[in-house]
Design brief:
- The chain is an alpha/beta fold and about 160 residues long.
- It folds into 2 domains: about 55 residues, no CATH class; about 100 residues.
- The chain is about 30% helix and about 45% strand.
- Strands 1, 2, 3, 4, 5, 6, 7, 8 and 9 form a 9-stranded parallel β-sheet that branches.
- Helix 1 crosses helix 2.
Length: about 160
């Protein structure tokens, strides 16, 4: 209780001390807007540098059939069921989400199959992940070395043929 009443008396008797605590000195107040302008300019430069990367966006298919050239767009996502797809050229990433799809591809660094009853034939793949059931993936070799394959779910067949 003593401190509270003492601080009230001090703030009533010396109001200019309270102003100095609440308001920053003029030199500091003027620097803050410049700092936020500098941060905004730096952020704009970073976003401008990343903008060319946006041109490399993946191609997403929801149609029942398509032929895709991975030399032009190396990342492909198929979000459909019951479709037939042909992928030519070297793909970096192929993602299949759906069921009852038939996919033929030349090569992919990463292949991910999510769903059921998908059939994929690919000549070369480095990393292969299958999630779901009753999927069949047939591959011949790795793109850069020995392929790594993993399957989660029931009755998935990962077959390496010569």
């Amino acid at each position: 209780m003593m401190r509270r009443s003492a601080s009230r008396i001090a703030s009533r008797s010396c109001p200019w001390k309270l102003m100095n605590v609440v308001r920053a000195p003029t030199s500091i107040r003027h620097r803050r807007p410049m700092r936020s302008v500098a941060v905004a300019v730096a952020l704009a430069l970073v976003l401008a540098a990343l903008a060319p990367g946006a041109a490399r966006a993946e191609k997403i298919y929801t149609d029942k059939a398509a032929t895709h050239d991975c030399a032009k767009e190396p990342e492909v996502t198929i979000n459909a069921g019951g479709g037939t797809y042909t992928l030519t050229g070297p793909c970096t990433k192929v993602v299949v989400n759906g069921g009852d799809n038939k996919i033929k591809a030349e090569s992919a660094l990463k292949l991910s199959v999510n769903g059921s009853k998908n059939s994929v034939e690919i000549d070369a793949v480095d990393r292969l992940a299958v999630n779901g059931s009753d999927n069949t993936v047939t591959y011949k070799r790795g793109v850069t070395g020995k392929p790594k394959a993993a399957a989660i779910g029931g009755r998935n067949n990962l077959n390496q043929v010569k």
